[in-house]
Amino acid sequence: MGAKNSVPSGSSKRVKGGALGGSDLALLIGMDEAGLGPNLGPFVVAVTVWEVKGRPEDFDFWTAFDTILTNAPTEADSRLHVADSKQVYQPQRGLTALERGVWSAMHLCGAASASFASLCAAMRPAPPPVPVPVATAPPKRGELFSDDELAAARPPCDTACTDEDHHPLPWYAGYDCPLPVEAHDLALLEPWQKLCKKLRVKLVAVRAEVVEPLRFNRLVRYYDNKAQATSRLAMNLLRSVWQPDQPALIVADKHGGRNRYDGLLSETFGQPVNCIEEGAERSTYRLGKGELRFQPRAESHGPVALASMTAKYLRELAMHHFNKYWTEKLPELKPTAGYPNDAKRFREEIVVEQRRLGILDDHLWRER
Q: For residue 324, what is the enclosing H or E element?
């Protein structure tokens, strides 16, 4: 049926350290992000969590779902296009292909939603409790953030909430984008459900953190390092869906040029980490019953590709709200995707209206 999928998920060479296992069922987790480069709009990190039979490293995602998904569609291919979001989504082509894949996955795990706000709520991980801030409190064992940082980076209480007083960002207040945005069918959903049942595979969850500029800026200032802040956001999300006593294979895209993750993993989970390999091509670790791989082009793994698409989809919906708000205020204003050069143009064109509305720079503009 159409073009053969080009990169098998389970084909990477095994490294020393032994197989995962012990349990008949294990988790296969993919993690990726969207919106790290822009100055406007949120940064989004997402995970997809699959339950598979047997050893997760033996599960060939692309072969298992060959009749439903493809990462290399032909022109007449009716399968869902699941790949790096940059391949699936092009602004001139609209959201159809991106939304069709994410929407089908959300139905598959029973989390489809009628609006942007409810979708964010369905995907949001349970946040850790926010303690009363105390001056320069160090992180407690097994906790990712210090008390000060948790207070500074408090997750929003809803899609719009961004500051201490929980005032909503105006581009979310009073408007909630109905979903799906583009018209498409769900003809492949039932066959996908049946195939999952036959293979004893289950999409357990799709989770995402939508990090608006104020929270992003606070974290970057706290660490004085953008990569450190984003890595910790990713680890905090991972901690919400997996614990080391669960057999799992976790695959994630590398965080920038970073090759070492052992200290970050140990701090996140409060357990010793066994380093299997570290290098430009892959960094692999054993932690409890899990194996974690950080590698470039991780979207060749189906669960990572779907996480990439989910993060991009949420960011595009957020930018839809953002642009709708500003173009209603300034009808001649050209919408923006938020990336640096055009973001500067956009910022200059809204600055007078921004000041009139009393919108703070920190709620609008990501500094790094």
A: helix 302-329
